[in-house]
Amino acid sequence: MRRNVSPVFSSSPAAIAAASTAATPAEDDLPAWDLSDLYPGADSDTVRADFAAAEAAATAFETRYAGKLSDLSGAALAAAIGAYEQIDEILGRLSSYAQLLFAGDSTDAAIGKFYQTVTERVTAISSHLLFFTLELNRLDEAVLEAKLHSRAGPGDHADPALAHWRPWLRDLRVFRPHQLSDELEKLLHEKEVTGHSAWSRLFDETIAGMRIPVGEPVGGEALTVSAALNKLSDRDRAVREAAGKAIGTAFAANVKLFALITNTLAKDKEIIDTWRHYPRPGSSRNRANMVEDEVVDALVTAVAGDFPRLAHRYYAMKAKWLGLEKLQHWDRNAPLPDDDDHLIPWDVARARVLGAYGAFSPELAAIGKRFFAAPWIDAKLSPGKSGGAFAHPTVPSAHPYLLLNYHGRARDVMTLAHELGHGVHQILAGGQGYLMSGTPLTLAETASVFGEMLTFRAMLDAETDQRRRRIMLAAKVEDMLNTVVRQTAFYLFETRLHDERRSGEIMADRIGAIWRGIQTESLGPVFEFSPDYDVFWAYIPHFIHSPFYVYAYAFGDCLVNALYSVFQSGHPGFQAKYLDMLRAGGTKRHKELLAPFGLDASDPAFWRKGLDVIAGFIDELEAEA
């Protein structure tokens, strides 16, 4: 029930989709991050000192407060939460540092050992803090409200110190009905290092260690998984086909291991969900996202109902553009025939993104520039490095870090805009402190997708060539389909898999059949999926690290589409309201955050507004076809 001290990575769907060809920017032109703002080194005295300080403080905290929260005044309870936050932030800094090192090279045995050691020590130390949130949740509502209004003096005055923590207490108590006994909670907490975390590490190290021999016409190279996936966007269809088949062969050779990991984690989740009385597999994620099951259902139903209007329609057009009657899976991200997508140097990408941010808000761009002025971004292409892209918030007393694998294509520019949006959001929200700066996943994608939209619109408006505008519009549609349709399909895949796992272990062939079925439903009849595609579920990290994470992308994209339409309508004071929304961090729910813009995510028409934006782009492309 404690807040996870290791923030979940936030990967861009565009990065996961893979978006490059063989040519890449010169390595010397790409930045690498410097993690010394967190710690000077894994074996540094600072790491040892922080562990010692956190352990001493956590032990003293437990001695001072365990079993005594009901007797504390509002001011004293506020002081206790503040002390808890300070310890938690130390542990968060240690965990963030280990995670970032591991993301930089998960094939290095020494780094892997350090990562595991940190995970185990943080878990052991935080066991002393576990009582705090459990005991807080056992307080009756009336008792907690009395503490919130325990300030001395005439009348009913809120205690200002404890009132500061009201949003955190509100979110904590969402999990109250699902809380177990202290002994069970401590057991689950301590076994995490040999449970979900251990299986996640096995997945990461297996993916990082895989080398995929892509034969002719690629040249027989043995590529990393990330590099092989990038070949699926090559202009040459023979290269795409060779890469697609090679990836399928490589994952088929490891499919028993991936099926075991998937089955084990799904069963592990079922056991915990059953004990916690969650009604269905996705409910725990929805609670963490501070969104009702019914709101997620409305989103998924709206998107799935629009599969024909969106993906089916677009990919049927794309097949005609490519001169094909049927598309194979390796054609999904194929460049259009007249797409002369050229190599975009890093400096140009930076200028485009910051220019788009600055045209919207100079303050937004000023924060974004800090990521480039300081070594906060790692964009190099390195063996052993985590694939895709993410923004890691670390802790408010430091700053976020961005990881990209920059290949120099237009889609990579969109990925940069996406992750920079996360980073700017995390800095703005940092003022809320460690416990309240983090946003639910449904809102965490707002600034990232909005940053993409700003960049895309700026690039589209600057383009005068109609052919290039059409190509850019098609690329944007594909990114939106990857974000909305594909991620919703991922969510449906997870739902079906977890539901079926409750009846027993699922064989790898059956997992592949579930995968192929939902891909056919979502992408449409123009696709003719070959058997090698049945194992492509195995490389998606979200299924392992963060079950049911993926719908947050669709939530964020539709939300941003609706938000951007409000901006385009000339809504007064939009920029200031937008920045205030980002500064709020996790202190407000989606209803409160969207209300200033006249939007409500619980209204079914809200999702239609977002989906209509995508459909409108496809209408434009159809009109020009």
Give an overview in words:
The protein is an all-alpha fold. The protein folds into two domains: 16-32 and 254-338 and 364-371 and 400-625, Neurolysin, domain 3, CATH 1.10.1370.20; 34-190, Oligopeptidase f, N-terminal domain (Butyryl-CoA Dehydrogenase, subunit A, domain 3). It has 29 helices and five strands. The protein has helices spanning 13-17, 45-65, 74-104, 109-126, 130-138, 141-148, 160-163, 166-172, 182-191, 196-209, 225-230, 237-253, 255-276, 283-288, 293-305, 308-322, 346-360, 362-373, 410-429, 434-437, 441-444, 446-462, 466-501, 508-523, 542-545, 551-568, 574-583, 590-594, 604-624, and strands spanning 212-214, 221-223, 377-378, 390-392, 401-403. The strands form two sheets. Strands 3-5-4 form a three-stranded mixed β-sheet, with helices on both faces. Strands 1-2 form a two-stranded antiparallel ribbon. A hairpin with a 6-residue loop joins strand 1 (212-214) and strand 2. Helix 18 (362-373) packs across helix 19 and helix 22 crosses helix 26. The protein is globular and about 75 Å long. It starts with 12 loop residues before the first helix and ends with a helix. Residues 1-9, 16-22 and 152-156 have low confidence and may be disordered.
